[in-house]
Structures are given as C-alpha cells and as structure tokens.
C-alpha cells in the first residue's frame, strides 16, 4: 500500500529583508588615508581614525590590525591611487616630458581640492618619534626607490643623447625629488596649484634636456 505524501500547508510569506550592507574596505581605507595625510602618523589618533572610517576599534583591529599596520595599508593605497601617474610619466619620450609630467602630476595630487594638501609620504614622515622610526624609514625607502627609477630613466636619456653626455643623472634625479618634496611642504602650507605650476615652469626653463618645438 502506497502512502500519499501530503504537501505541507502554505505558510504565510515573510517580508524579505535586504542583505546587510557590506563593509567597503577600500572606502574605509581611503578615509584613514586622508586622516594620516592631513595629520601625519603620530598626529592621527585612533578615535579620529575610527570616526572617519565609520567603525569601532575592535573592528578596525580585526580588519586592518593595529595603527601601524593600518598606516602601511594607507600608504599602499596612496601609491596605487594617487601616485599611479608616475609609471606613465617615466615612459614619456624625452627626459623633459618625464620630469614635467612627474612635477605637474605631483602638484595636482598635492593641491587636489577633494583631499588634504601636501603629500602623505612627506607628512607621515615628519616629526616621528622613536616608536614610529621604522615607518619613517620605510617612507624614506619608498621615496628613494622612486628617485632611483627616475635616475635610471635619466641615465637612459644620457645614453640616447636626449641629455648632454656630461649630465649627472643621479644629481638631476635628486634635484627633481627635492623639488617634489618642497612643493609638498608648500602645498601643505597653503600654496595653490598655480603657484606650484609657476615653480615648475622655472624648473623646466633650466632643464638641460632638448627643448621641444612649440
């Protein structure tokens, strides 16, 4: 004898609640980056960071680790989202184009109206105590690595005849890096983009590379 399976009685439908809003890690990291950018590493407190990121301290630790780890992540984010112009600049056809793109790109980032002015790497490394010295050293190493890449590009320019044979690529790269850092300090102090651009015009007028026909 077969038993007929009875269908379960209809249940009243329940209103579906939407899926909980997912945590946007990149957005939170951007907010932390802006705090560090404006106030430096030691000047940024955990209450300021958690308020800006919209999360409490246990959640911050769970997702990003401690303040030091968060700062490292913020620096990585800064490099990938704000300094991404550097790679394209280094591929420009002449040393003059390379340097001008690097300087104008830096000035644009340093004076962006939607972000703190200056440079995260510069502000983050200033006024660091002994506990933050490893972070400062890492920022200095990152800056040195960018200068090294520029030096190699300028050495190529010398080899190709784009720069005079007597040009010192290392000294020129150091000069450009110093200008970028100086602009960052000026921007953090209130210098406008137009003011930084005038500085760049002065630098480019003295650049030893070939003048383009304009």
TrEMBL record:
Keywords (A to Z) from UniProt: DNA-binding, Transcription, Transcription regulation
SUPFAM superfamilies named in the record: Homeodomain-like, Tetracyclin repressor-like, C-terminal domain
InterPro entries, alphabetized: Homeodomain-like_sf (IPR009057), HTH_TetR (IPR001647), Tet_transcr_reg_TetR-rel_C_sf (IPR036271), TetR_C (IPR011075)
Record bears the keyword Transferase: no
Domain HTH tetR-type: 22-82
Pfam families: TetR_C_13, TetR_N
Region ranges (Disordered): 1-25
Gene3D superfamilies listed in its UniProt record: Homeodomain-like, Tetracycline Repressor, domain 2
Ranges annotated as DNA-binding: 45-64
Ranges of compositional bias, category Basic and acidic residues: 1-13
Domain of life: Bacteria
PROSITE patterns assigned: HTH_TETR_2
Entry annotated with the keyword Magnesium: no
Any one GO molecular-function label of the UniProt entry: DNA binding
PANTHER family: HTH-TYPE TRANSCRIPTIONAL REGULATOR YJDC, TRANSCRIPTIONAL REGULATORY PROTEIN
Name this polypeptide is given: AcrR family transcriptional regulator
Organism: Pseudoduganella umbonata
């Amino acid at each position: 004898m077969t038993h007929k399976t009875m269908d379960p009685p209809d249940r009243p439908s329940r209103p579906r609640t939407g899926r909980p809003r997912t945590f946007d890690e990149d957005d939170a990291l951007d907010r932390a980056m802006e705090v560090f950018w404006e106030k430096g590493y030691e000047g940024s407190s955990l209450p300021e960071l958690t308020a800006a990121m919209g999360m409490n301290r246990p959640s911050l630790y769970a997702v990003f680790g401690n303040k030091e780890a968060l700062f490292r992540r913020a620096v990585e984010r800064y490099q990938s989202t704000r300094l991404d112009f550097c790679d394209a600049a280094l591929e420009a056809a002449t040393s003059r184009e390379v340097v001008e793109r690097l300087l104008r790109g830096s000035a644009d980032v340093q004076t962006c109206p939607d972000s703190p002015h200056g440079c995260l790497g510069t502000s983050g490394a200033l006024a660091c105590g002994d506990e933050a010295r490893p972070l400062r050293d890492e920022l200095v190493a990152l800056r040195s690595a960018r200068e090294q890449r520029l030096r190699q590009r300028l050495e190529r320019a010398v080899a190709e005849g784009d720069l005079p044979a007597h040009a010192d690529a290392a000294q020129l790269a150091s000069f450009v890096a110093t200008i970028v850092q100086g602009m960052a300090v000026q921007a953090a102090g209130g210098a406008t983009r137009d003011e930084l651009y005038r500085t760049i015009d002065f630098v480019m007028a003295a650049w030893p590379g070939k003048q383009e026909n304009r």
